[in-house]
Every structure is written in C-alpha cells, then in structure tokens.
Specification:
It is a single chain. By secondary structure, the protein is mainly alpha-helical. The protein has helices spanning about 5-135, 140-155. It has one domain (about 5-155). Helix 1 packs antiparallel against helix 2. The termini are far apart.
Amino acid sequence: MNINLSLLAQAFTFALFIWFTVKFIWPPLLRAIEQRQKQIADGLAAAERGKQDLEQASKRTAELLREAKQQAQDILGQADKRAVELIEEAKGAAKAEGERLVAGAKAEIEQEVSRAREMLRAQVAALAVAGAEQILRREVDAKAHADLLRSVQSQL
C-alpha cells in the first residue's frame, strides 16, 4: 500500500467529513445552541422581571398595610370622639333632668311654704280675734291689756 495514496484518501475522507458536518450537522447544532441560549436569556429576563414584580408587590403591600393602619387609627379616633360626645350629651341630659327635678322640688317647697303661711295667717287671725274678744270681755285696764297681749304673743 502506498502511503501517499492512503494519506490522500484520509485527507479526502476528512474533507468529506468536514463538508458533511458543516452542511448537515453544524446548522441544527447551532440552532439548538441558539435556542437554548435564547431560552436561558428569556428565563433570566423573566426571573429579573419576577424579582422586580416581587419588590413592587412588597412595596405596595407595605403601603396598603400603612394605609390600613392609618384608617384603623382614624376610625379609633372617631370612635373615641363619638364616645366623648355621647358622654357629654348624657351629662347634659342628666344635668337638665337634675335641674328640672330641682325646679319641681323648689316649686313644691314654695307651695308648701305658701300653705304654711296661709295656715299661720289663719291661726294668727283666729288668735287676734280671740285676744280681741278677751280684751273686750274684760274691763278696760292697761295692765290687763298688756298681760293679755303678752299671752297672745307667747301663743304666736
């Protein structure tokens, strides 16, 4: 066997192998590699978008939580304010009721005082008439009149 021919055949076979590989095997391999690179790039981009979305969602959640706490504080403040208003209204109503009761009691006391005065006047008038009657029955004597007036005074 001739070495040159063998080398030439091997070189021709190698060239044929390279041409076959470049023509039929290399393009699908490059497409597969490019698709895989594209998939990896898309996956990395999606991961980055997901990370950004997660950060935005965390910020939004924190903001909503802060707003909810603020609203809760506002509602509690309004409830406290309303409770104070209700207490003040109840105090006012109780004070008005107390004043009404005091006014009624004062009016009743005044009526009782008026009745007592009327009874006292009637008794004084009766005593005066009784004293005048006793004075007229006795004779006109200054000393007796003074004694009688003292006894009428003591009865009053």
